[in-house]
């Protein structure tokens, strides 16, 4: 690849236009599932990668640290101007749907950014002991969004699980999607939030749910009927214990 000196501001302006194109597409259309769709042509993607490459490898001066900082700045700005405002103030299933949508769109942006900044992953992050482009994005999302919203997200999911146990109609697919979002937040520097947050909360909630059910049945049902109600719960909890 031919190396030529690139002015940082001119180079970043080109990169910023590509980033704006990604964000505008997500804002206007959402993420589509057509595997054949390409937001950038191969030549456009290569041109942006080459700009990053030249900014990082030219000798006087090289801008790899500045590029990495600008990448983090973009993610922080995107979260604070788009992701968090869309989630704050929502509750119940509306919050869960926004959680799924926001993370899906964020991952779409993250994939393109990982492609554009591939050179930083290959030669910068190891040398300076920084998170990879992907992990930096996940860390920022975890620390700024998940940590703020996890209480409401977890309590809503547990409420839906209890409603499902009671036979009420529940959007199980939505619950599954939210749990997948939380599981996908894992990175090289983070434990899986599902294991650290959701599993303990689920076990605590299950214990409280079963205790309340059994107390109500014991108070209101004859003993034979009480035992008929308790037995399926005993089987379910035994199975849960075996799976831990």
TrEMBL record:
Classification via Gene3D superfamilies: Cullin Repeats
Biological-process GO terms, alphabetical: ubiquitin-dependent protein catabolic process
Entry GO MF terms: ubiquitin protein ligase binding
Domain of life of the native organism: Eukaryota
InterPro entries with a match to the protein in the record: Cullin, Cullin_N, Cullin_repeat-like_dom_sf
Residues annotated as domain Cullin N-terminal: 12-234
Pfam short name (any one): Cullin
Recorded family membership: Belongs to the cullin family.
PANTHER family for this protein: CULLIN
Protein name in UniProt: Cullin family protein
